[in-house]
Amino acid sequence: MQAVMEKASAMEKAPSVPNEPRNQLEYIEQSRQAHGYSKGIQKLYDLALSYMPDAEKGNQEGKPAVWSTGLMEAPLLYACDTIPVAVYDLGRLSAAEGAAERAEELFDMPKETCSMVSALLGEWYLRKDNSMKKVVALSTVCEPLNMGYEMIKEFGFDIHRVEQVIRPVHGGDERLEQMVKFLASELEDVAVFLTGKPVDEEKMRFEIKRLNRLMAKFREIIQLRVSNPLYIKSLPVLFLLMGSAHYFGKPDEYEAMLDQLIEELKTAPYVESPLGKIVPLTWVGARGLEFGVFKAVDDMGGALLSWFTPNPYDRVWNEEIPPLESMARFILDYFVTGSPVNQIKYIEKMIEETGSKGMLFYTYIGCPYGGMHVELFRNHFHQKGVPSSFLEGSWQVGAPSGQLLTRVRAFVEMLS
Length: 416
Fold this sequence. Notes:
Layout: H1 2-12, H2 24-34, H3 39-60, E1 65-68, H4 74-79, E2 83-86, H5 99-107, H6 115-126, E3 134-138, H7 143-151, E4 158-162, H8 172-195, H9 201-225, H10 234-246, H11 251-267, E5 279-285, H12 291-299, E6 302-308, H13 323-332, H14 340-354, E7 358-364, H15 368-383, E8 388-393, H16 402-415
Parallel strand pairs: 1-2, 3-4, 5-6, 5-7, 7-8
Helix pairs in contact: 3-10, 3-11, 5-6, 8-13, 9-11, 12-16
Pfam families: HGD-D
Protein name: 2-hydroxyacyl-CoA dehydratase
InterPro entries: FldB/FldC_alpha/beta (IPR010327)
């Protein structure tokens, strides 16, 4: 009881911070201060902010690191004694303003180009003299980014492509087994690219077991949040999602942080909404970079309790079959690379489990892939009577537009 009272007192005394952060790092610092009562959140942000600098330093000192998607490849890369450095987390952990503009100038890219691809090309250009030059590229994630990989070869990046396949609709079990075998061979080639030899299967089995254990703990945190949604607000949950794919390069520390948060949530005092009511919500689509959107949700009494994002934290890897086959089957069942029609059932399950009253669909400006999926989702859930709001954001460093924030606030207020 004494510990609970001390946490409650710490919440009340958390220092105030300016209302208008200028970049992602300032939003993180604001959130860190707002969560001053949580040792787990402090450790989470420590891991996030040290992730890429430590990976690069380690790489310079002989600990291999490789650029990757940061989605589901952790067991394979860690089994190769290689730190996965997530391409898609560059902007969230950077304050390098003007990265997209730099890419547009270098490559004469049209303004309509996906903001994510433009920004990532700019980020890589700024890192062209750094030591991490290997890239594992998963082909089915984003076609414009596939072209971007070709562009950065001139900066000395060594690109290894993984030709992924999508689970077949027709052809039956025989066709599926052919795809499993092909994809497993592609994944084996990743190990050869990184180490010069086939993957150590015992190491990969260990990593698969670790991933399953960590994701079970992650899911426990998601479940505990339903009863106390604002103890861990939206931005830290986004970073927990990010870390679920690569552990910020420090698996043991990431697991200890998850354990800390579980213990906190079990005993934490209930955090009231600033407006007296909490509106449970589901986030669908990209993991946004415009952190002000997440703050606006919190400020209006919204609580993002379920996340349908590229991080498949709700899946379990098969530990009973060969590890490369397990990874291949996981990818073929992975909802992001499949048809959005097949993904709907997973979103419905999340809404039911968390009691969500509405949905926020988020995609990046200029992303046809995300935009088409969102339209299919919106139409389905509109017919089901589930309120939703479509947010089109930018892969940028800085605060979101006032128009975007107004839409978020109005939507949450409507559901209150």
